[in-house]
Amino acid sequence: MSTLKGNVSIITGASRGIGAASAIALAKEGSHVVLVDILPCDETKKTISELTESSETIVMNASIDIKNRNEVHQLMKDVYDRFNRIDVVVNNAGTCSRLDLENMTDELWERDINTNLRGTFLMSQEAIYPYMKNQGRGKIINVSSISGIMGGPFAFSNGEKSERSGPAYAASKGGVIALTKWIAKEVGELGITCNSIAPGPVETEITKGLNYPLENQVVKRMGRPEDIAGAVVYFASAHSDYVTGEVLKVCGGSAIG
């Protein structure tokens, strides 16, 4: 029997890509799922309903801005009021600008930093205090990126021009990794773990139209959202109860150090 049966998992950026795949994977393992996004999550909810129609899985939609503390605070209260528990938070929602340092604007810098880093901070803080703390258990799973480790891997939008994730994205994801380790050290004694998954090139809206030099990877293909979802399920499950503060690279070997 799944160790996630009856658990409650909150997934941000759940309308598509890694977030949708993660929500579906967690639901298949028996977890109730809360789909969080500023975009509609109808397709994700429909897929989950079709896959789990004979189970007791509950799907809850929440359209909020994860950069807004009041909205995040109310989300956690609403989830706890409905389920009387919060077991897992998957901080996946993110934005990615690709302007270089010379052309980076204040607006795009602040967008990426606030969505990717502030959003992770708010969702983690509001879930842990007081809910996970009072439960004496919980799992925080932060989706970072190998960009936060490598400073942005190269991709190609055509045969000549090279592109990579911009400095704001790299800085925000590096910040997520550092925040993950900081939180892990803080909340371990409360029975809570905090880990990060650092995807490499994955087929999502963020990478659409880009061609990565896959010949340089060990596994010579683009990643799929389901590849990341498998790592999410591991960190959400009891199999990772003795693992915290870790950054798991799911990148086809593109960031072997």
UniProtKB/TrEMBL annotation:
CDD domains: SDR_c
Coiled coil regions, renumbered to chain: none
Matches recorded under InterPro entries: NAD(P)-bd_dom_sf, SDR_fam
SUPFAM superfamilies: NAD(P)-binding Rossmann-fold domains
Keywords, sorted A to Z: Oxidoreductase
Keyword Oxidoreductase in annotation: yes
Family per record: Belongs to the short-chain dehydrogenases/reductases (SDR) family.
PANTHER family to which the protein is assigned, alphabetical: 3-OXOACYL-[ACYL-CARRIER-PROTEIN] REDUCTASE, SHORT-CHAIN DEHYDROGENASES/REDUCTASES FAMILY MEMBER
Protein name listed in UniProt: SDR family oxidoreductase
Species name: Oceanobacillus jeddahense
